[in-house]
UniProtKB/TrEMBL annotation:
<keyword id="KW-0804">Transcription</keyword>
<dbReference type="Pfam" id="PF00392">
    <property type="entry name" value="GntR"/>
</dbReference>
<keyword id="KW-0238">DNA-binding</keyword>
<dbReference type="GO" id="GO:0045892">
    <property type="term" value="P:negative regulation of DNA-templated transcription"/>
</dbReference>
<dbReference type="InterPro" id="IPR036390">
    <property type="entry name" value="WH_DNA-bd_sf"/>
</dbReference>
<protein>
    <recommendedName>
        <fullName>HTH gntR-type domain-containing protein</fullName>
    </recommendedName>
</protein>
<feature type="domain" description="HTH gntR-type">
    <location>
        <begin position="1"/>
        <end position="67"/>
    </location>
</feature>
<keyword id="KW-0805">Transcription regulation</keyword>
<dbReference type="InterPro" id="IPR000524">
    <property type="entry name" value="Tscrpt_reg_HTH_GntR"/>
</dbReference>
<dbReference type="GO" id="GO:0003677">
    <property type="term" value="F:DNA binding"/>
</dbReference>
<dbReference type="GO" id="GO:0003700">
    <property type="term" value="F:DNA-binding transcription factor activity"/>
</dbReference>
<dbReference type="InterPro" id="IPR028978">
    <property type="entry name" value="Chorismate_lyase_/UTRA_dom_sf"/>
</dbReference>
<dbReference type="InterPro" id="IPR050679">
    <property type="entry name" value="Bact_HTH_transcr_reg"/>
</dbReference>
<dbReference type="InterPro" id="IPR011663">
    <property type="entry name" value="UTRA"/>
</dbReference>
<dbReference type="InterPro" id="IPR036388">
    <property type="entry name" value="WH-like_DNA-bd_sf"/>
</dbReference>
């Protein structure tokens, strides 16, 4: 869309900086000579890319967001270590840690019976006070990956776009049935699965990047 492309170009060229306020919908209608619905659709597109945010209230409006952090899928370390090393301003907080019955997907990954006891750790990652990622990590009791090896030898990431669970929506501040970027991560030492994680990422709050070589 021409209007979305024009706004995106001004943001990416730094003509519009983080914190700048966009003209009102009425002003954009006059500037581009289109219907208000067309302007709203263009703003929706740019917002879905994490480039702008809409604020309500007396000082509300549409503002340019800071560039969303980039999540490197092949950085070689976990997200917590990656963000700490990058000095990205992204913080992590463990929300809960304990023993739970293994859901079917977790049981299948570890090749144990559904309902078997596993250790579950929930971690919320935030940037500038906004949650951007919620990770639910599973290990077998007494088999945390640190006990087998300081670092996993290899891992597999599966990327999908899927509806968030109620728990993920609550943790990320999303509405019911919101769609998230999903990373299903399996970490291995040899052939042994040491950690299985379900990671939900707000599509408007972070970008995923993977680098391959020929």
């Amino acid at each position: 869309m021409v209007i979305a492309d024009a706004l995106r170009a001004r943001i990416e060229s730094h003509e519009l900086a983080p914190g700048d306020r966009l003209p009102s919908e009425r002003e954009l209608v006059e500037r581009f000579g289109v219907a208000r619905m067309t302007i709203r659709h263009a703003l929706d597109m740019v917002q879905s890319e994490g480039l702008i945010e809409r604020r309500r209230g007396r000082n509300g409006g549409t503002f340019i967001r800071a560039t969303p952090p980039v999540l490197e899928l092949n950085s070689g370390v976990g997200f917590e270590e990656y963000f700490a090393a990058e000095d990205s301003g992204v913080t992590s907080a463990t929300r809960s840690l304990g023993q739970v019955p293994a859901p079917h997907s977790v049981a299948n990954a570890f090749k144990v019976e559904p309902g078997s006891e596993v250790t579950e750790r929930q971690v919320v990652f935030s940037s500038e006070g906004q949650p951007l990622m919620f990770a639910t990590c599973y290990t077998l009791p007494g088999r945390a990956r640190e006990e087998l090896s300081p670092e996993p030898e290899w891992r597999e990431d599966i990327l999908t776009a899927t509806r968030a669970s109620d728990r993920e929506c609550e943790a990320l501040g999303l509405g019911t049935n919101a769609v998230v970027q999903r990373v299903t991560r399996s970490m291995f030492v040899g052939d042994d699965l040491t950690e299985f994680s379900l990671i939900a990422i707000r599509p408007d709050a972070a970008k995923l990047r993977a680098v391959t070589t020929g």
